[in-house]
Model the fold of this input.
Amino acid sequence: MRLLLSDCFFLLGFHDCFNIDIKNYRIIKGPKQAQFGYTVQQHTSAGGEKWLLVGAPNEMNGPYQTGDIYKCPLSKKNNGNSCSKLNLGRISLTNVSERKDKMRLGMTLTSNPNDNSFVACGPLWSYECGSSYYSTGICSRVNSSFKFSRTIAPAFQRCETFMDIMIVLDGSNSIYPWYEVQAFLINILQKFYIGPGQIQVGVVQYGEKVVHEFHLSDYQSVEEVVKRARRIEQRGGEETNTALGIKIARSEGFKQGGRRGAKKVMIVITDGESHDSPDLQQVIEDCEKDGITRYAIAVLGYYNRRGINPEAFLNEIKYIASDPDDKHFFNVTDESALKDIVDALGERIFSLEGTSKNGTAFGLQMSQAGFSSHNVEDGILVGAVGAYDWNGAVLKETRQGKVIPPKSSYAQEFPEELKNHGAYLGYAVTSVVSARSGRLLVAGAPRFNHTGKVIIFTLKNTGNLTILHSLKGQQIGSYYGSVIAPLDIDGDGVTDNLLVAAPMFFSGGMEKGKVYIYRNRFILEGALEIHNGGQNARFGSSLAPVPDLNGDGFNDLVVGAPLEDDHKGAIYLFFSQQNRILRKYKQRIAAADLAAGLRYFGQNIHGRMDMNEDGLVDLAVGSYGAAILLWSRSVVRINANIRFEPNKVNIFVKDCQRGGKDVTCMSAIVCLNVTAPSPLLAPHSLASIKYNVSIAERRFNPRAIMDSLEKLQPQNLTLLPGKETCEHIYFHVLETTDYVRPIVFAVQVGMQDLDQGPILDDTWPTLPFWNGCDEDDRCIPDLALQSPLPSSGAYCRRLAGGGADPAVRVMEVQRRRVVVDVRLDNKGENAYGARLNISYTHNLRFSSLIVKVTGSPSLPTIAVVLLCCRSGLKTTPTPHPTCIFQCAATHGHCLNTFYCLFFYQIQNLGFFPVRDLQLNIEIPEMTKNGNQLLRVADFYIDQVGGVGRAGSTSTLIFNVSLFKGPCMNSRHRQHILFRHLDLLLWTSPYNSCPSIGHVSCLSFCLCVARLGEM
Done:
């Protein structure tokens, strides 16, 4: 006789939090008033050092709140808060009258893993144009050595006032008085918007000779230019060489300090015909070739004072002025009248505003480019939410220049009739890689039509933007598209899922947030939601695709909910399998679990690198005034196997003695080895585990006993990954008659330290069943339920409308069975675990069930659930999108009515009349649920004998009690009161009713109707 041996294994020490360590972490604190922690990025410098970049968009630089980026070293010797500012807020765009205050630099932070550079943006950077400030935004690219590389400002447009103006001033002797000319000069200069990126002014004065009073680049403000103009004195001269003055201004004035691309303007002021008029033709032709716009002002004071005809002079001035004359030619009566044309001259000069070829000059002034950013192969893609009246745009800057798509590119998906909604296109930008189409760009517009939209498009460097797909939000105000991220699950370089967040999605009476998942071809696959978050969690405010964290070969996802737990914040870790994201989060890390005082934890997340040199990808999480580094822990698997020597128990072989008895001695060889899907701390790191071996004999007298009781205690063991360690466990088998059931050995294994070091993997490989569904292994059935019996809901609606047929629920007496015929069809993919619920009351008893399957087995497993429910109690199964539930139960309706007659006679056998007689009739007929099945249908009383005294009355109280059980329940008692009856007189006990004489009887007939219910 041989007794079989068996073994089973248990894993100990699983953590609910899994492998992101919440016991050991690092908090880097910074100034809260600077919004330190608004953005975070992991960074490797040129020398290989690990750094954490932290955005602080409210950081001060001098007197201005520009924002900045902090760099924080992560080496072990720099364990404190030794962060330092990069002072990017001090970087300026040349030749621009900029306004840096509140530019929010660091609000956007994007790293480029290809060259370890990064881009930081200040979307509210502004510059002055005339009397306006344009918030076009600006970004700075910084190389791997933290050196500023270049400025990125794709939305920046030259001001309409980007002009170089040369004033050619006649200072000959005929000009009088000079202070009037000087006053005009000062007045017109004060009209100009002088400054970097706007107007530059130079002045030449001529008579017989030409003198440069000051050059274009000498002064950069109105105050400086006016101050210098006040010191200009009249040079005088007997001749007026206007052609020479224009020539010097053209050939020398515009070259000394002139700017490339600036509009060239020349203002000529003179009071007489030129002495070098033969040279004017060539001079004017040269001006035309150089694109100089000329304004000519004729001062007629000299002619008027002497009564000279000014016709020839006026013709010469008109020739000098650009065409048409009505816009470029002025004449005044004398020098004092110059002040009257200041406003008109200024307006005509500023009317030179132009537009670029694609019509964008008036659409990008408030674009806030850099609100979002994303690295592409040949440059940087930025979102410009304020472009085109806040409808938004997507811009690109390459080393070859800026790429600005025309406004018409968006017309198809963003129609003109919705322009006032402010779609905010560019609120988020990213890219995906398609197996068919290559790299495609993605941009979100969370305010489009109030529900949000995401577009997928291509953008060529010529500015040609083509929208290929669009995705629309489902809920008003959810901010769908405010955060988007691609996820390459299997690491093959092709995007498997596009994630679109709606952090203000309203669900269950609370603003929780939702993340939509789109698979290839941008088909909606499902969504990630949380069900334990509180009001205003803003789940999805940040999305961080991260490399494989648990060593299963699939990349994972971290989602931030910075307003959860009363604005403390939390992050959620989601694992992936095959080509899909698991819907149930694997780990939730709340700010309250880490440290007190953290707020908005999870507002930004980045995880691409190993930050503590253990070979594992770590997480950086932004918080209000802090950045938190969360370390990953190695994931290991403990493999255990056991074999027995000998492999079966032979009870006839007693080869040893234990306790003075002959027994069968055996040995179990337990072998353990550790494998690490993710790296350990070092190539030769040891894993400290604990294990326990026991004989699982649940009986008073066990069949097998360990030789050493110490082996029953947990044992500690240190293993080198990949190397197997074995141990002999000796035991003996006692005399037994139970040879059928095998002796079971249980091996429990786990980690010694649950708070540090590796953690056990709870995602052991499994062998799935083929389900016959689509390539995504997700079955989408289409169930249809047909039954001749209407549902209870339909019956109630008909009953309320007065159209219900009461005979529908009638059960005939002769028919003791009710047949429920239900047809369930599946028009879609296989439906596994389908359930058909049929409910009925206790008044019916289940008899039999016949299941007929026709066609292909598209319902591989079907369970018919019979539910007994009380009348009036609605049964609702667990909600499931692929389940159909139709309750055929009804409420209490009359199935059949039949009558039973009960006759009672009351006779007075006493010698005295009876007054106020009370009759109690108890009918114990109730359902098991306490529902009434009987009611009094009718009754009559026949007083067949007896004589009462004249004028006397008696009262009869007639109680009919319907009750459940042997005890009367007054709640069901029906009182029937009879008054004005004659007195019931005495009758002989030997007489029976009806009789004669003084015998008095009352005869009752009680009709009881039986009620029923389904």
Summary: The chain has a mean pLDDT of 80.
